[in-house]
Write a structure and sequence with these properties.
The chain has 9 helices and 15 strands. The protein has 2 domains: 140 residues, Rossmann fold, CATH 3.40.50.720; 180 residues, Dihydrodipicolinate Reductase, domain 2. By secondary structure, the chain is α/β, with parallel strands linked by helices. 43% of the residues are buried.
Length: 337
């Protein structure tokens, strides 16, 4: 039996609690939240779970095998470091930490103590995202030209991190997953409307190998909830829409074809628009969060390296740091170290 603990049961934490509590061979032994009312609510639903308002009661508990951290980003490093140092496996919600330096320290601690360090990049466990990756890698779309993402809604508004770190972290993870590498540079622009020091709206453009451009619009100040990414290829185009549960992916047989006219002249090619059919593949939907949680427990049991390990978390934070630096430098193009 694996004894698990969860720190933070505000907006997202209860979903993690629900999934881990439903697993065979896993016992949620402790739940921590600074809000005593939340702890009382947890006890009413899970009377067998011990609750506490002190995070130290969890990270110092030798009876806990793994700890799930779902707290403000600024607290991730300290909590995860203490849990790892005490021999616990650790699941941290995205982003892994507030800086790349902190991510590297957590990776070193996990390796030193031979413990699993897992990051909650949930969309890598999404059936639609995985199907899209297969279409990209199979070459059906042809050469990938660009990727364009929108992740917007009206709220929830955060004050600990901006829309880039809160929302775009998902898309950066997806971009690199699909394109098989990390961005080389980024240019970003953001604006603060609700809080003077927190960007509510961010536009960021990442450049990947081969000149592939990946753009994301992240905002919690928008009337519509949008979770959509378009991939434009030389042969076909793909649209992933997370809000369409029955048809998350559509593949458009559309593009621009070059018709060769006179090879030896300046106007040697004529561009023509190709309008083809739209294919809607059948995708067996899953609950990405449950798939993610199961993978974490499997890694705890087997010791295998997670799909979203500490290095994966580090890569995303490096890109976020570079984008933040770009915003402070009037949208200058900044290399991702």
């Amino acid at each position: 039996m694996i004894n698990a603990a969860i720190i933070g049961v505000g907006r997202w934490g209860p979903n993690l609690l629900r999934n881990f509590a439903s697993m065979e061979g896993v016992r949620v032994a402790k739940v921590c939240d600074l809000d005593a009312k939340r702890c009382a609510a947890i006890r009413s639903k899970f009377p067998e779970v011990i609750t506490t308002t002190g995070p130290g009661d969890v990270v110092r508990d030798n009876a806990i095998d793994c700890t799930v951290i779902c707290t403000p980003v600024a607290t991730h490093y300290e909590l995860a470091a203490k849990a790892l140092a005490n021999g616990q496996h650790v699941f941290v919600e995205k982003p892994l930490a507030a800086s790349a330096a902190e991510c590297r320290k957590l990776i070193a601690l996990a390796e030193q103590n031979k413990r699993v360090l897992f990051v909650g990049h949930t969309f890598k466990y999404n059936a639609g995202i995985r199907a899209a990756k297969n279409y990209i890698e199979s070459g059906e779309l042809g050469e990938v030209y660009l990727v364009d993402a929108s992740r917007t809604n009206l709220g929830p508004v955060r004050t600990d991190v901006n829309a880039l770190w809160d929302l775009a972290a998902h898309d950066i993870s997806i971009f690199s997953y699909w394109l098989g590498g990390q961005p080389r540079s980024v240019s970003a622009h953001g604006a603060c409307y609700l809080n003077k020091s927190v960007e509510d709206v961010v536009y960021a453009t990442f450049e990947y190998a081969g000149g592939v451009i990946a753009h994301v619009h992240a905002s919690w100040l928008n009337p519509r909830k949008i979770r959509e990414i378009t991939v434009v290829g030389s042969k076909k185009m793909l649209v992933w829409n997370d809000m369409n549960l029955s048809e998350p992916i559509r593949i458009y047989n559309k593009g621009i074809d070059k018709d060769e006219l006179y090879p030896d002249t300046f106007d040697s090619f004529r561009l023509s628009i190709r309008e083809g059919e739209v294919m809607i593949p059948s995708i067996q939907l899953n609950e990405p969060l449950m798939t993610e949680c199961l993978h974490f427990i499997e890694c705890v049991r087997s010791g295998e390296r997670p799909l979203t390990d500490g290095y994966d978390g580090l890569d995303v934070v490096r890109a976020l740091e570079a984008a933040s630096h770009s915003m402070r430098q009037n949208s200058a193009c900044v290399p991702v170290e």
